[in-house]
Every structure is written in structure tokens, then in C-alpha cells.
Design goal:
Blueprint: E1 11-14, H1 17-24, E2 32-36, E3 40-44, H2 49-55, E4 60-63, H3 69-79, E5 84-87, H4 94-103, E6 108-111, H5 113-121, H6 125-145, H7 155-168, E7 173-174, E8 179-182, E9 202-208, E10 210-212, E11 215-216, E12 219-225, H8 230-249, H9 256-269, E13 281-283, E14 290-294, E15 307-310, E16 313-315, E17 320-322, E18 325-330, E19 333-336
Parallel strand pairs: 1-5, 3-4, 5-6
Antiparallel strand pairs: 1-2, 2-3, 7-10, 8-9, 9-12, 10-11, 13-14, 15-18, 16-17, 18-19
Length: 346
Amino acid sequence: MYELLFKKTEAAVVLSESNRFYFTGLKTSFGCVLVTENKKVFFTDFRYAVIARQKVKDCDVVITDKRKLYEKVIAELKNLNITSVGYEDAYMTVSGFKDFKKAFKDFSLKGISAELTLIRSIKTADEISAIKKAQSITEYALSKTLPLLKSGVTEREIKAELTYLFLTNGADGTAFDSIVAFGENSSDCHHTAGDRKLEKDDVVLFDIGASFGGYCSDMTRTFVYGEASSKHSEIYAFVLEAQLRVLKFLKAGMTGKEADSIAREYFCSNGFEKEFGHALGHGVGIDIHEEPCLAAYNDLALPENAVVTVEPGLYLDTFGVRIEDMVVVKKDGIENLTTFPKSIII
């Protein structure tokens, strides 16, 4: 897939943390990766010298500091007789690009963020394996947490238990700030867990994910603690049906807009024009939100082996319901990486 980088440039200078990890397998707060057709060079500083030489197997490692980084990269480019350089145009700030352009004034510069995004959106077998492991930890943690739901427990306490279970079962950490929402808080799509206590017949929404090997997982399940009302059951059934329709038809070659429209049109036909206000899903990988997105604005075809979420939801004033699975997009359908049951009653 790297060949996509070299259609309009001879080398890529990669500065963003997530893309550095993609090419090196090492997370660092400072560094740069120079990628050419035949060679990769990882530039970082003294703090990572030992671990870089141990862990980064397919790159030359150069130790430098922030003041000399561009000087070292340029010296390597000139040594390789390279005249055109790709840079992350979607990542750089205005001031960052100003400095970059000044330093690399002797080179032809081309933006390559679109190419990097496409490369990363198509997951390798090893990447999918890491995501599967992260998801298995996530599902195990949720299964062990559900019995802890008792009247009087707080969102914050349940969130802490989930984090503990992630870490004690092999996760690097949480993939994002876990959402645990009781009752009316489930209407808040990105609720921050607080001191709300669980009460009988509350809706309970979990949006959680672990990180393993540098890769994320993402899953949402919605329950009722106690007895579901007719309204709870009705909304849950609509959300589940919307998700099942998408899962049935989703495949590579479909656009993100087309996937989103399956759920959106179903909701609209049943009177829910305003209750589904976010995109249907997003890519998952090194970052919890990556391309490709299943959204009304995305007219690009979904590539085979992209990992995406399918997470329709309806949000009323008094409660919300979201159900989210994470799937691998295939030529003739999907591989669903999420096996946790979809039942409204705990």
C-alpha cells in the first residue's frame, strides 16, 4: 500500500503521532519518520533511543533533538538524492507549515494526507488481530461489570470498575473516555460519567473500548435496569432494527453516505427526523475516530478491510438508546467483531 505515497512524490516526511506509530509501531511524543520506496528512517530523541533500537525493526534509527530535526531529515534526503517531499497537509498548523516550508525550501512539496488516510483505512491482518483482542477485552470487562449494577451505585464507580478490568486483562488502557450514562444522561451522546446514582427502571448506556497493541475497540450497549417501559422497548426496537438493516447490506464499494442513509431513512420513515443527529459510524484503528466515516457527507467508496462502527441511536428528552458494533468491511458483506448480546434487560 505504501506505493500510494509515491505517485506524486519521492519521499514522505511523517510528523503526526498516530502516523509515526503506524510506520514504526512505537508511540513517542517526539519524532519523524522519513519514508521512501526503499527505506524508512525514524528520527527521535534521547528519551526513546533504547526502546526505538529494540522495537523498531524495519527503520534506521537516528537520535537527534527538536532543534536539529529538520536538519537531520534534510541531510538524509540529500544523501538519497530526493528532490520531492510529501507532507501531512491535514495535520500541520499554519505556523507549522510556515516553518516546514522554510526548512524544506530546496524541495518540491506535495500534500499527502489523503494518501496516508487511505493507506491507514485498509487494515492488515495484524491490525485486525490487535483490534479483535481489544474488543475481546472490552466485552469481557462489560460482562463482569453488569452484575455490579445495583441501586445507588454511581456512573463514576462503574466507569472505574471498567477501567480496572481493562487494565487487569491485558489492555494498554481505555481507547477513549468511557461513557457510562444512567437515566436521562443517556440522552447526552458523549456524556461524562459523574455522581448520578442508578435507580430502578433506569436506562443504562455504555459506550466503551479498550486499547491493545496501539489499536482501539469501540462498542455501545443500552440496557434497562429493572423493568423496561413500553417507550423504552419501542425505541430500542427501532434502533436495533436500523442497525440490523445496515449490517445486512453494508459492504466494500458502498459509500459512507449510502450506508448512513439506510439507518437515517428508516428512522425518518418512522417519524424520527430529529432524534438521530450524529453520523452512523466511523473508522477505528490507531485512533478511535478515523476514516472512513459512515456519514451523509462521505461520497467515497468504503475500501475492503476497513474497520468501522455501526452505531445508530435515538435520543429523546428523557433517555437515549444507541447500539454499536464494530465490523470489518468485506467485498461481499462484513465480519462483525462484536459478539456481545443485544438485550434491553440486564
